[in-house]
Structure formats: structure tokens, C-alpha cells
Amino acid sequence: MTVTSGSLRSRTDLCTAIETELTGLMGKRASVATTYGPDFTRLWAIAGENVLGGKFVRPLLLMETYDALYQGSSGQRETAISIAASIELLHYAFLLHDDVIDGDLVRRGHPNLIGSLLAEAGEIPRPDGALHWAQTGGILMGDMLLAATHQSFARVDLPHELRLRLLDLLEHTINETVAGEQLDVGLGDGIVAPELETILMMCGYKTATYTFELPLRAAAALAGADFAVENALATAGRHLGLAFQLQDDLLSTFGDPQRHGKDPYSDLREGKQTAIIAHARSTASWPDIEPFFGRPELNGAEADHVRRQLTDCGAEKFVQSLIAEQLQAFNDVLASAESQVPPNARNVLVDLAGQLEGRQS
Amino acid sequence: MTVTSGSLRSRTDLCTAIETELTGLMGKRASVATTYGPDFTRLWAIAGENVLGGKFVRPLLLMETYDALYQGSSGQRETAISIAASIELLHYAFLLHDDVIDGDLVRRGHPNLIGSLLAEAGEIPRPDGALHWAQTGGILMGDMLLAATHQSFARVDLPHELRLRLLDLLEHTINETVAGEQLDVGLGDGIVAPELETILMMCGYKTATYTFELPLRAAAALAGADFAVENALATAGRHLGLAFQLQDDLLSTFGDPQRHGKDPYSDLREGKQTAIIAHARSTASWPDIEPFFGRPELNGAEADHVRRQLTDCGAEKFVQSLIAEQLQAFNDVLASAESQVPPNARNVLVDLAGQLEGRQS
């Protein structure tokens, strides 16, 4: 996601600015937390480390788009950085609640907050007490970061209308992400029928909205861009977001766990209803896959067998074709808005799309 | 909590105004929810019924205090109602996450949101899938209501300073409530040592702050009251809040489940570390109580035995004396602020304190 031309600021400067803002947002709260004893303090310390260890995909997208769109000389850049950083907090809040819901203890090859709390709790008398304690930490930290995100949006010193516009965006984003999460869980729990259409809708809601649409729309609003520009970027961004999510599913199932850093085979073990599975279910190979799907004790050899079946039945290829479709739609939207969207802003997204190729993590 | 004098508006009018505001806040979102399918729509429908079925303790405290403090002729009354209603949403968000954390399915004698979702899910293939689905609904609805609370606070059309003051209050409240919840869970899971002092601190953080301090401080800020008045009310309110929480513990353990509407003996079954238990632990009766404490399969006869032991060892009386102490401190604070706090505002709290006597639910 390197901006290739026209931006006055390098990627490194942007990362530093976002990191400084996040350090401030988390540091202020971590310092207040010490009033409430060692366990509350520890919660903030772990969360702070994890937040600052992120890749800042969403804040960078917002800032690079803002810098590409903003035409004036001073503008709302400081506010944009504060909103960008708070979107990273929102991302982490969603991850925490997602990890609680999925029972995950690892993210990107390292213990997540829940895994860290569990390891530190050690042996305690009540059965499952340590896991309960750790998952409670995940719920509560997610709540506090969801609150922190709103605090940043609420405190911006902007004209009333623009502030309301950002608050609308945040509200829409949370609604849609939560609806996507509920669909995802409903699919996994067997409450919602695993139709391909439902699965694709879920991917869009759960990930594309907050990862692409929110930063792009916020950047456009803060830069004072026309609504047509905002809409073209957001629509293109949604297609790209769906492509990324579908590729995530491919990586989780077929990729190298050493590189993508997730629990290996966790999607298969959890019985996650992905587009891969939706396709496989419509093929003659399904009776050979189904007994292994959603089996918590799935071992490596069984998982390898399922992966081969998923490739052989054409599910891997099918999802690759879905990704290609989304990229085509992405290109079409950007092409048809060529006269409206400034080249630098287009380049931010085109560079991002370029990262899909050869992605391993 | 009837205002006995000076208020221009009756309790019924206040309830109607709060109900109307809550209907608007929930209705707008329930209507957006229909875009995302039947399960998301259902989540909002159940939450809407539950929110509107509440007793509005916190919003009423805010509005009665506001009306008692406000001296002018127009003021921020509409904003006060919006903030009051959003504090009810915050309360419900906390309850939802608390119920998820405690594994509770019943509240006030009726299925809570999780219990309703569980009952409606019916039989599904995945073991524990229905409970997982229902608890996920509790986490997600809590998130959305936490977001909705912040949206109300963020959108108020007030002078910048006053808006920031309310946002500070909300931030402080959430921090303290979450710290209290974490302490409570740490006590239950055996992570935190069950000292009486810790338990009392936990009660203050977890309940008194958002139930008493937040509505009282928000009312004072909105009414433009002196900070000395705000502080006296908030300090008195914290003592009262602690008294209510201690009485809640007494009711849960010794009260009639038909009247208080909770899972009977759930505190004993869950091994909840209350002031009652902290005292009992220091007596010679503890070896006879301990084997039953925190036993999930505790039956009615065993629970009756434990309750008798808790009375006989003096734990019930001890907690009654703690309540009396808090009420004394409450009266002392109000008395020493007599020249500053208007009589009507004092009466709101005094009437509320009166409800402690003979409380059954």
C-alpha cells in the first residue's frame, strides 16, 4: 500500500504519526487504569502492546486517501490522524470480541489478549476459571476500546454537520459489522443456511465495511471531497475488501500457517462456512469432506486430506474466480469514475489491490 | 423514588417522556436492522422489549434531579431526557455483557435476551451451538447499545465545554464500571483475593458509579449547578448506591426468589464473593458453608442449610450493619451540604433512600 506519486509524506512518517496518536490514546487510559489495581492495569498494558503491534492497514488507508484528496493547505489533518488511529482501536475491539466468540487464543502466531491472560492466570481452583477470567478480559477490553473509538469521534472539534456525518458513518459501520458477525456465527452454529450468497454478504458486512468503506468515506468527508468521489472510492473499496476477505479464506485453508500466523486449520476445525465450503458442498466430493468439517479434534493428516479434496473438487479455483470478479468490478468502478477521482487517490487503492498478488499472510 | 415537593412534573409524565425517547432510540435502529435479515431484526426486537420493560431507575434519578436543580425557564431539558434515556441503554448494555459473563439466562423472573434467543434457536446440529449463538447475540447487542449510548452523548447540541464534560463523565463511568466487573469476575474465579475491602470497592465501582454518580453528575452539569452541589450529590449517591448493592446481595441470598425474580441461589451456586461471604469466612461456621459454596449443582435443601448458617454466624447482621453505615454517611453528606443543595434535590435522594426499607425486589 505504498503511495507511488504525489503524496508529500512518506509511509514511514504516516506510520509514526499514527503510532504517536495511538500511544497517546492508549497511554492516557493505561495511566488512569493504575487507579483500579494490578489486573486492570495489566489488561491495558497487554492491549497497548497488541494495538501498537498492528499493521495499521485502516489508518494508513485513511491517511493516504486523505492526503491524496485534500487540495488546500492546512485542513483537518490532525483530526484525520485522530480518527484514523481510533479506527485502529475499533478494529482491535472487533478482533477481541471475535476472538471471545470463536474461542481463539492465538492471532498472527502469538497469544492474543485472551491467550496472554490465560497464560498469566496459571492454576486456579475453579475449573475453567482461568479461561473464564481471560475471556472476560477480552469482552471488557473490547467494550473499553469501542468506547474509546466513540470518544475520539465525539470529541473532534469540527463543524457540527461534519461531526454528525462522521458519527453517522461510525454508526453505520458498527451496525453492518455486527450484522456480519452475527451472520458469520449463525452460519457456523448452523442457525443460518450456508448459501453462497449469504456467505458473500456476510464477508462484505463483517470486514469490507469497516476495513475499506469507513476509512475511505471518512477520508473523503474530512478532505471535503465531493460525495460522488466518496461514493466511487467506497464502492471500489468494498469490492477490494471482499476480494481480500475471500483471499483470507483461501490462505487460512490452503496457506502456510507459519506465514499467515493463524491457528492452522482453525477454519476447518471450527466448521467455518466460507465460499470454499459453499462450493464444495455442491460437488460430488462433499460426502468425503463433510465428516471432517467442523470436527474440533481434526489432526494434521486429516486436514491435509480435506485440503486436497477442496482443491480437487474445484473449490479453490472457484474462489479464485470470485476474487478475479471482485477485482474486475473494482477496476470498472475506478475506470468509470476516472474523471472525478484524482489520480493519487486512485493509486492508493490500485497499489493496495496490487498487494493481493502473491500474498502469503 | 417519588418526588414529594417542588417538581412541576409528575413521575408519570417523566416515565412517558423517557419511554418516548427510548422508543425513538430503539425504534430507529430496529428499523435499520431489517436491512440485515431476520436474525438481526429479531435481536433488536427482543432488546427493544427488554429495554422498554425496565424500571428506568437511572433516567428518573437524572430527570428528577435535573428538574430539582434547574432554576431557569427553558434550559437543556430535551437534552437531559436524551442523556437520561441513553443511560438506560448503557445500563442494559452492561446487563447483557454481565449475563454473558455469568452465563445467566434469566433476569427478573423472565428469560433475558440470551434466554430468549436460546429458546428460539431450538435444536441445531452443533453441540452447544444454540447457547453459543444466544451468547453471541448478548455480546453483539451489548456492543451496539454501548455504541448507541455514545452516539447520544456525542450528538448533543451543547456548548463544546459542556459536551466534553458529559463525555468525560461517560468515559470515567465506563472505566470504573468495567474495572468493577473485572474485579467481580476475578473474585468469582479465584484470581483476586476475597478481602472485604476489595469486595466493597468492587460494589462501588461496578454499580454505584453508573447507577448513582453518573445520573447525578450529568443532571447537575446539565442544570448548570455549582460543582460543590454536583460533588455533594455524587458523594451522597455513592453511599446510597453501595447500600443498595449490599441490600441486593442480602436479597439474592435471603430474599424470596418469587419476588426478586433472580435465579434462586445463583449467588451461592456461582460462588459469588459478597460481603456476606467475606464475613462468614472469618467465622467458625465457614468449614460448614465452604463445601456448598460455588457448587453448580446446589439443590434447594442445601441452599436453605447454607442460608441458615449465614444467618447464624452473623453474616446477615454484619451486612445489615454495613448498610446502616452507608446510610449514615449518606445522611451526613447531605446534612453538611444543606446550605448548598436545594431541598428538592435533597428530597430526590432522601426518597430514594426511603425505598431501601422493606425492599423485596
TrEMBL record, chains A, B:
**What are the BP-aspect GO terms?**
isoprenoid biosynthetic process
The coenzyme or cofactor needed here is:
Mg(2+)
Q: Which Pfam families does the entry mention?
A: polyprenyl_synt
Q: Which residues cross the membrane?
A: none
Per UniProt, what is one GO molecular function of this protein?
prenyltransferase activity
Query: Which keywords belong to this entry?
Result: Magnesium, Metal-binding, Transferase
Annotated family? Belongs to the FPP/GGPP synthase family.
Q: What is this protein called?
A: Polyprenyl synthetase family protein
